[in-house]
Amino acid sequence: MDPVHALALALIQGITEFLPISSSAHLILPGKLVGWPDQGLAFDTAVHLGSLAAVVVYFRHELHRLTRAVLLHIQSRQPSTDSHFAFNLMLASLPIIPVGYFTRFMVEAELRGIEVIAFTTIVFGIALWLADYMRGDTAKPLTPARSIAIGLAQCLALIPGTSRSGVTITMALLLGQSREHAARISFLIAIPAIAGAAAIKFWDLLHTPITPDWFTLGIATLVAGLSAYFCIVILLKIVNKMGYLPFVIYRLGLGGLLLWMIY
Description:
It is a single chain. This protein has helices spanning 3-16, 23-34, 40-58, 60-76, 81-93, 96-110, 114-134, 144-155, 164-174, 179-206, 214-242, 245-262. By secondary structure, it is mainly α. The radius of gyration is 18 Å and the shape is globular. The two termini are 32 Å apart.
């Protein structure tokens, strides 16, 4: 892969991974619109690892606190708010792992067209706006049933253009979470989702004869990680001040542009 091509895609991946605008769509579009070759499994794995590192580093203190709460719950049978929250996050993280594993080839073959991306960008953008508009003033606790619903919603993000963060935030808002708490849930359940995706891609990579360009992949991982970290910071600031409307407007504009280009 050309180094400029790799750096551009790594930056796109990092910027869009945690914003509710679909990283997969933005990685597919350059190839569809300007003829860039497919970035390949090795590159996908590298940038996913960069995004994973970003969210782990940003939430490292919270992850440490939740881990301690879970261990205390298991060892002394003393439940706490943090341990219940952690267990619910685990529940929300489960559905996408088997669904992603068994549908990955079908998604790659059937659902990467611009028409699909345009449709999902608009439809799930409107869904995010409605969920944000209808959210209540009082945040509801995260229960096992709500967690599973968020986890099932996350499976829709396997369709390019849907946005993993966008669809999980949408479901969390519909289930009574505040704007910031919905984003926090989305970020935290991204950790096993991204780790699982990277592991599956790495497994597939082991069964291909291609020798990766490790230097380029290392730079791409670093760029994706740094840009993803700053996007987490930016998203939380925007959400607290303006809600999710800026991202809805962006999605509608992008989807409209794609439809204009198609038809």
